[in-house]
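Hey all, sorry for the wall of text incoming. These are the two entities for the joint prediction.
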Amino acid sequence: MEYDLGRLGDAGTNFLGIDVHGLDVPAFLATARHLYPLLGLLWLGALLRIRRAGWLLAGIVAANAFAWLETNYPLQRIYAFGPSRDRVGNVALCQVVAAGNPPLQTWQVGQMHFEPFWGLLVAAVSGWNVERVLRLYPWFSLIMMAALAVSISLGLRPGPGERGGRRWEAVFAAGFATLLCSMPFDSTRPYRVPWAMTFLLKPNHALGLVMLPIVLRAFASIRTWRGRLVTGLLLHVMGWVFVLHMFYLVVGLAAFTALSMLRWPGEARRDALDSAVVIGVNLLVVSPYLVMLVAGYPAFTRSPLMTLDPASAHLMEVTFRHGFVFWLGLWGLVVLLRRGDRLSRLWAAQVVGGLALWLAYYVLSALQLARERDEIYYWNAFLLAAVAGIGCWDLGGRAAAWLARPPVAPAIRAAALGALLLPFTLPYWWNPASMDGYFTLSLPPLAAPLRQATDFIRGQTAPQDVIAGDPDFARYVAALAGRRALVGLTLPLPRDWDERWRLQGMLVAGPDPEAAVAAAARYGVRYLVVTPYLLSTYYSGTDLGRIGAQRHLQSVFFTGDPDGDYVAIYRVKKRES
Amino acid sequence: MILRAGELLGVPQGVPDPALHAGLLRYLLLALALLWVLAAGRSRPGLSLLAGVTFVLAAEGFWVLALGRPYGLFLDAALTRRAADMSVAAAGAPPGQGFLVDVPPAAEAWIPAATWLRPAAWLLLWPTLLPLLVLPVLGVLVHSLWPRREDAPVAATLCLLFSTGDLDAARGVGFVPGLWAHPGSALLLLLIMAATLVLGRLAVREVVATGLGAAAMASWLVVHGASEGLGLADATLLLTLDQVPWCLLAAWGWPRLAPAGRALILGGAALVLLSALPLGIDGWGSESFYRFGLLLASAQPLSSLLRQAAAVLGRRRALAGFAPASLSPALLVLAGAPTCFLTWWTPTRTDRLMDESREPIAERLRTAMAWVRRETPSSSVFLASPDYAPEIAVLGGRRVLRAPTLLVADDDDRRDRAEDKVLRGRALGKLGGLYGLTHVFIAPGDFLSFGIAGPEELEKRGRFRLRYRDSSELRVYELE
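and here's what came out:
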């Protein structure tokens, strides 16, 4: 749409409030790529003196932050806001909650929402302030990167009595999961760059990944029925965060049980009981949500688009595509299975379960039901990388033992491995200008008419007011002003879709003003947004002049060129009592 | 003229289609890798080399077959200029004449070679086909000439699999991705590599052999690169971190490294540093020498590591039938081939010219230009619009008066006046005999600024004799 395309060179600030419209972006990115190796080597050098796993973990978080800042700094809008429909939609879902509307509804008035957790979280963090959400939203990506690194390092930390070297191994797993889950030319592949597509684009999904180590740790620690109940409840929370991740984890638990029966028969009964109870508790608590989800989401609607991409070598995408990380991940799997403790088996089973799900997509594709392929791909990519970190640490230890007597301190091993792996970490090769299709499109600020119109709506309308009109523009109204829409594109169709469009028609074309006002009141519609797109696509028989003459409408805002691009806002007059 | 590699094999246009068949390519490469593993594991070095060459040819050949035209033709001015000069030279233009009448051709080896390249119908395709052979030939050279014979299979495998890494490709100097932009200099690179390998085997002191090899690489200085240079920061990273783990293995193997390997590393590093400066030295070849040097240097230490791994794995019942010496190259292929750059290379997503070259040349244009080549004397000079002048030169093999999208002659003002007079039907006067204009090529929409509403208008303006016309109103007029 024209209104979401600003121009490069227009004055605008980035998320830090810094004017970057004159920034030489290619030079900025090149400088960042030259600086990173230097900073990385210095950090690893410091590790040789400090000799704490926490320092390495801090370095991993800092490296993620470096790439995050490098990507977001030049942007004069929220990353992918506009170029990605997902992005606008996700921000919209949060904003309507921040404006004070029910969290169980989407930005399409009266429609149930499948993933209310994120919107509630964002609204709470922002203090239920729509403007603050826009300022804080870029930071959520960084928070999720840091949270995942910390979560994995804590989730895999050694228990009492275990070797201290496991602490370093856990940090390595965290480093691999965040910095080595992606390869330089992932952008040329069907699923693109996992790091960017998860943390930058969908931090809400990244939260599900953050919960994975926590749930697995809780499961590994189960000793009593209370533990089973708590773990089941944790898993249910994961379902609210991102239901697909909950499902993947459940499949991993099934794989865990199967592995126990095959190789650890002494543990099988306990493992099966724990899995059954945890999954059962989860299903019990989350089942109403699942019913709502199945009823409202077209998960079982076949479509020729829901098949595997013929350009993708499906089996190889989650294996050989990851290069040396795949081989290290395979070794990590061996290490975990040989170790045989409960936590290790859980992680190994998650990898096996993820691969099994990936294979199952052949069947789903044949049924034209292969939805959310990217989500399972990312799940597998992060899992494989985490386990590869474990494999790498183990191989590093063996190499150190072979090369040096006496044994090398863990910090020295970590620094050496870190230096070796530095060129393969994302910030070393990351060039968003050529590797991220959303980056360049996110450089210019939002078009002025869009900002002006949504500023008006945010400032001059009540939070509960519903906006009718352009169903595509409605996404921006929701995302930038926190107002719900009567009809919106990109969301599943509500049951009363036809009735909503009839109301639209009544508002735009009349001829019965009283009936239009009455119908509008039923949905809480107080404003009508008219754009060239609305008229040319849906109401080509009318024009601004005729709409403005409608007795039930009062013009309250206009920006743009009436013969070109514009946004016109009308207030729906209230029913006379 | 054959313009598509697929035509040589009888493969229809649109096959292979990357959007439909890239997945199959990856599986094919996996299968070829497994065959390579078997050949290597059975101590059949010749067969193993053949399998490796086949792997490389499949990985590269898929993308070449997907092209609908020679790489970059009519999409890149420099590549199109070269093709135009080649075509005009092969068609028998007078010596010293390039595609622009009375302008000498570019000083490129392809142009004189065009007169003897056979088959003639493949002329425009050679710069697209020859790069396919560079890496396989290089692998054969290394396999044949590497002095440490026990490491030769591993050395050749390393060169075939790891000639390009993700990091140097991301920095714009990847070996395989750069081949099609350097078709002629890739052959020079091959010659230099061969010379270095041969010189390294001379029965002289190692330092002398190393020096001779490094000196051979100085001939790369004649290849022009980007004038601004790579930049010192990029060059430093290319020489160090971008080459992990090869730089580390090479350092380990340095004491026992053959002179050719040292020459490539030292000479290549020097060239990379020079290409960092704004001296116009090509960074692609410089980095390639350095990288191949590191790979060759890694062969011995890697062989040693692989033998140890093979000794451990050989105790497994499934692998008991393999000798450790043959298991080690097999392990290298097994680990490397499915994950290497070549297997996952998608040039249509990273190389604009590779992507846009998938579109074939319009058939009506090919037919018209075939007529021009067949029915007009080789000394003919055409007047054509900027949209079609390149096609006249490249596909028709005839010189043109002006082709501003490719090259602007020093006397372009005078050529512009000549063009104006011809198209307005005026007498050429002093310009008459200057350029030897013989024909006009005109298509619908050409020369509108001269008041020519359609091709048929031209013959009303002067003494033009219609010689060719097709259903889309592409026309050729002869000047009377």
